[in-house]
Amino acid sequence: MFGFGINNKTVKELRKNQGLTVKELAHILKLDTIDIMKIDDKKVKDLSDPLKTKIIPILRGDYIDKIPWL
Questions:
Q1: Are the C-beta atoms of 28 and 18 separated by less than 8 Å?
Q2: Stretch (H or E) spanning 39
Q3: Is 43 left (phi over 0), alpha (psi -120 to 50) or beta?
Q4: What is the pLDDT of residues 8-66, one digit of tens each?
Q5: What InterPro entries does this protein's entry cite (predicted)?
Q6: What is the C-alpha to C-alpha distance for residues 28 and 57, in angstroms, rounded to an integer?
Q7: Least CB-packed of 4, 31, 36, 47 within 10 Å?
Q8: Do residues 14 and 44 lie in contact, with contact meaning Cβ atoms separated by under 8 Å?
Q9: Cβ–Cβ contacts within 10 Å for residue 9, how many?
Q10: Residue 26 Cα distances to 4, 5, 31, 40, angstroms
Q11: CA neighbor of 37 nearest in space, from 68, 11, 2, 70
């Protein structure tokens, strides 16, 4: 409901569930693709706090609610 199980999953698994490529996720987060590739196999709970606060809403799909044409 509120993403309680999101911390135990890898970034790659959650990214693929949202249908995002590394390049698309990097573009949304305004990071380099190599930075996303470095954290792709890490669990969300192992990420640093600033990165975790930026990436969790994207991996949960919260950004989709803000699309004006839906």
A1: no
A2: helix 33-39
A3: beta
A4: 999 999 999 999 999 999 999 999 999 999 999 999 999 999 999 999 989 888 877 66
A5: Lambda_DNA-bd_dom_sf
A6: 11
A7: 4
A8: yes
A9: 16
A10: 24, 23, 5, 11
A11: 11
Q: 7 or 68: whose pLDDT is higher?
A: 7
Separation of alpha carbons 28 and 18, rounded Å: 13
Q: At what angle do helices 49-60 and 22-29 cross, to 10 degrees?
A: 120
Where are the extended beta strands (E) located within 1-70? Answer: none
DSSP letter assigned to residue 9: S
Angle, CA 21 vertex, CA 34 and CA 6 arms, to 5° = 90
CA distance 46 to 58: 17
pLDDT at 45: 92
Q: Tell how far CA 27 is from the center of its chain.
A: 11
